[in-house]
Write a structure and sequence with these properties.
Strand order of the largest sheet: 1-2
Oligomer: single chain
Strand content: under 5%
Shape: elongated
Helix content: 55-70%
Radius of gyration: 30 Å
Number of helices: 19
């Protein structure tokens, strides 16, 4: 639970006393079991366990008052009871978390079979659940059935080891909100051959740059410039106006789709298919339609329009919203947001103000534009 809270709420991570107690109680019981085991001796414990397994748990009353009796109570009854309660509580926590974070089996399916991205926390939950289910079986009296045959024991151990390995591997990516199988494959950054070394390094740098914040990118570029002894200078020309950018993006014609030019194809997606009107459009969505990777799309947008992908999409949406507002002056913000690619009315209002410097209502009141 502490780990899942850490990756879903990275800025709220001082463990509470209850969380620490959650961990401490099983450790205390395990330590007590180990001490009692050493006191009793392996042979005595083995004889007692064989007797209880063959005659039933009622046979333990014969050891009442002895250290072996306390060993059994601590290791078999108390420890299993505590672990069962904790695992059941964990199940409740997982249900609440899954509803809150909107985990979906469909997203996991797309991640496994179609190369899509999935929430890192959801992937960890997918690895934890079967692992904890197996642990629940072991902590209850079903364990006698599981470990009755060596084949069951081997299968149980292999399954547990597999899910522990999945969980441990997933934890490498805890700092990322979303992850895809392709990105996970590049986790071991030096696990590539001489032949594909350059491409692997380029792909990894692209992924890192796509995740980095603007100030981080600037520091990286400055370091590269210093190391390569080159001067990175900004263009002397001012950035183009917002409406000019929208006009550039939407200047392509549908026929340009057939041309083998990525920029023309990108413009076609924006104008011909109006892809920017999809509320949750991502770089991965565009890259998939263009048959390339998100780093290439990000670099294409940055180099062409001198702005990031989210900023460009918001620019197109705001430009489209301005035309919509002029044509539908009585439209409510919910309607405008729904028809112009925004997630909600509040999101539309915030982004519109950020791009234009004013709210939609004030913009309409001050606008001297004519309907196009």
């Amino acid at each position: 639970i502490m780990y899942l809270k850490k990756i879903t709420k990275p800025y709220n991570r001082i463990p509470t006393p209850i969380e620490l107690l959650w961990t401490a109680i099983p450790i205390i019981l395990f330590t007590a079991s180990l001490v009692l085991y050493l006191i009793c001796g392996e042979e005595s414990v083995s004889d007692m366990m064989v007797k209880t397994l063959s005659e039933g748990y009622g046979a333990i009353t014969a050891y009442e008052g002895e250290v072996l009796y306390f060993y059994f109570i601590v290791s078999s009854v108390a420890f299993r009871t505590v672990m069962t309660v904790e695992i059941l509580w964990f199940a409740v926590f997982i249900i609440i978390l899954s509803i809150k974070e909107k985990y979906r089996l469909g997203n996991l399916s797309r991640y496994l079979f179609k190369g899509g991205s999935v929430k890192t926390s959801g992937l960890s939950v997918a690895a934890i659940l079967p692992m904890y289910f197996l642990l629940l079986l072991k902590c209850t009296f079903v364990r006698e059935i599981i470990f009755a045959e060596s084949g069951y024991t081997i299968a149980y151990s292999i399954l547990m080891a597999f899910f522990i390995l999945c969980f441990a591997y997933n934890s490498i990516f805890a700092s990322k909100e979303m992850i895809s199988r392709k990105e996970m494959k590049r986790a071991f950054r030096y696990n590539y051959s001489v032949r594909n070394k350059s491409q692997s390094a380029e792909d990894m740098i692209g992924d890192l740059l796509a995740d980095a914040k603007p100030d981080s990118k600037k520091r990286i570029f400055d370091k590269l410039a210093e190391e390569l002894h080159i001067a990175i200078t900004k263009s002397a020309n001012p950035a183009p106006e917002r409406n000019t950018i929208a006009e550039q993006v939407l200047s392509s014609s549908p026929e340009s789709w057939g041309q083998d030019k990525m920029l023309d194809r990108f413009r076609h997606l924006m104008k011909g298919e109006k892809l920017f009107l999809q509320p949750r459009l991502t770089l991965d969505d565009v890259a998939e339609k263009l048959g390339t990777n998100k780093f290439y799309v990000s670099k294409l947008v940055n180099n062409t329009y001198d702005m990031g992908f989210p900023e460009l999409i918001n620019t197109l949406r705001v430009d489209y919203a301005e035309q919509y507002i002029l044509k539908h002056r009585d439209a409510k913000q919910e309607e405008i947001a729904r028809n112009c690619g925004f997630i909600s009315a509040s999101s539309f209002n915030t982004i519109f103000k950020k791009v234009t410097g004013t709210t939609p209502k004030v913009w309409l009141a001050q606008s001297s534009h004519h309907v196009i």
